[in-house]
Amino acid sequence: MAIPNLEDTATWSIFHAKMCRDCRALCCRLPVEATADDLIGMELLSDFDRQEKPRSLAKQLKKRGLIDHFHAKSGKFTLARRANGDCLFLNEESRRCAMYEKRPATCRNHPQVGPRPGFCPYQRP
Question: How many structural domains does the chain have?
């Protein structure tokens, strides 16, 4: 099996649920868009925060290092990633999501949605 390239989805494998058992979490290096509802579910915002303007929330979240971008047109936030490209919420040692039960819809629905639906940048350990 060739090493997948995140930018070249042609190198990705057809997804099978058993891949998740020994996953190296390469999909956790993809940009993750999250809605305000996702951020509330992740407990990064409170329901009370909905009253604030999204741009103001984005400024606060960016200052806290939780997001990289805010897309005003779509109202979506892009979660922050570490310098190595990993999602901020990926445990560096276990390569498992620290927010798994609260993860945003983008993550919950991967790989059914994403750059290449039905495919995964899976790499054997």
Answer: 1
- Please give the average pLDDT of every successive group of 10 residues along the chain, which has 125 residues: 84 91 89 96 95 95 97 96 95 93 95 92 83
pLDDT of res. 22: 86
- Residues 88, 48: Cα–Cα separation, whole Å: 24
Backbone angles phi, psi at 68, to 5 degrees: -100, -35
> How does the average pLDDT of the chain come out, rounded?
93
Question: How many CB atoms are located within 10 Å of the residue 62 CB?
Answer: 15
* Integer Cα distance of 60 and 114 in angstroms: 27
Q: Identify any residues that bridge with 119 across adjacent strands, giving them in sequence order.
A: 14
Domain annotation covers residue 68:
yes
Sign of dihedral through CA atoms 61, 67, 72, 76? negative
Amino acid at 43: E
DSSP 59-102: HHHHHTTSEEEEETTTTEEEE-B-TTS-BTTB-TTT--BTTGGG
